[in-house]
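Input chain follows. Return structure tokens only.
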Amino acid sequence: MQITDNDRSRIGEAISAAERKTSGEIFCVISRRVSTYLDVSLAWAAGAALLAPIVFIPLVLDFRWPGDGWEAAHEAAQAATTAQALALYALSQAVVFVGVFLLTRIPAVRRLVTPAGVRRGRVREAALQQFLAQGVHVTQDRTGVLLFAALDEHQVELIADEGIYAKVDEDAWAQAVAVLTRELRADRPVEGFAAAVDLCGQVLARHFPPRPDNPNELPDHLILL
């Protein structure tokens, strides 16, 4: 998904238009990916490597049960067989570990094997970090709203400051989140952010009309991470 300077300007214009009707502030951020999920890949690789012997042991070890057959019982022969089995055991674990690790580094596979709760948690954490880092929480009346989209995770977060939560029910933002999610899925980020910003502006205008001076407390542009 490509975001051009013209796209950023269009989103900035949508923010400015929405904020003219309210004392609230709207801030937009797009993150390519909020986490490397290296720990997830390592966990899958380690788990697969531990389970690999269940498959490989019957293939690499020659189990012999008591019977009428003849066996070479010499200690040297037994030691060589054991060493070979252990070497194959270790090799199979290493191959499985590396193979699964590399497989889970493919973005589509990584998204599939990462638990939904982990992805949601990390997107939420990244959104909160941006909420604080961009100063959305330091507006005069605590009426800042952050729209955050995580592209690799295919998730959208909306965070409103405490001054808004005192007057606006959380469900009021559901339509804005739904519109942005739908448009991002269709690879239309500009249309999605413009529509979501307009909806957020309508909610803010109903509860926080513009002040006589109505300063612009946050930059009206999209941040790309």
